[in-house]
Amino acid sequence: MLSDQLKGNAIDLFFCYDKINDFSQLNECVKIMAKVLLIIGAGPGLSMAAAKKFGREGFTVGMISRSEQKLKSYVKQLSAAGVKSDYAAADAGDTTSLKSAIKTIREKLGLVDVLLYNAVDARLKHIMDESAEDLTNGFQISVAGALTAVQQLHADLKQNKGAVLFTGGGTALYPVPEMGTISLGKAGLRSLAHQLHKALKEDGIYAGTLTITGMIDPASDKHSPDILAEKFYGLYKKRAEAEMKQ
Predict the structure, then answer these.
(1) Structural domains in the chain, sorted by start
(2) Is the pTM of this model over 0.85?
(3) What mean pLDDT comes out for the span 199-225?
(4) N-term to C-term CA, the chain
(5) Residue 84, C-beta contacts closer than 8 angstroms, at least 6 positions apart
(6) Given strand 59-65, what is the order of strands in its sheet?
(7) Neighbour-count burial of 27, counting CB atoms closer than 10 A to its CB (0-12 exposed, 13-18 middle, 19+ buried)
């Protein structure tokens, strides 16, 4: 495999081209060279803004969420913005489905450089009306799925000195009873981010969370998707703090 030949080298584009045996390997060469952002829990607001920001910085974007129809529309939107992307449909709360989708994205786009985990169990339900079963399922989506993704991508991220980014929320700091599962999920994700920040540092992997303390609104001068996307990119570039509050 061409990727095996190039593994471990300080690769530049000309070196990659020099290694190809025929023109059919050109796409593989390009795939190896491109940086890849994988968004899990892709949606129309913050995810698209982050995809476009990273895309402008030279990234190819992979997306995972439950709706294939919506994912196809996101690919069209990104293509119109000049960003190459692809997708795989999966439920972040289903470990087998999530692992399969990550494998598909890697086969399509190559090794992943940055993981942005944006999935959350977003049900608005009072904590006293919650069931243990629903809360457990919510934890699987909001927290356990994030850890599964990191574990699946660990080798990629280590090789590429990559980054793990989490979409945090203000309910991690100020829990709201009417948002029971969201509050618990964001608290768990925040804890996971701080743990991974320490645990992955020795592998050269950055991990951090952007704790968003207000409603995401295109009209906001603090919490618009575009502003938050810039903050995510800043976390990735600076690779310093475990948490940024915005």
Answers:
(1) 31-245 (3.40.50.720)
(2) yes
(3) 95
(4) 44
(5) 34, 55, 60, 61, 78
(6) 85-89, 59-65, 35-40, 114-117, 163-169, 206-212, 243-245
(7) exposed
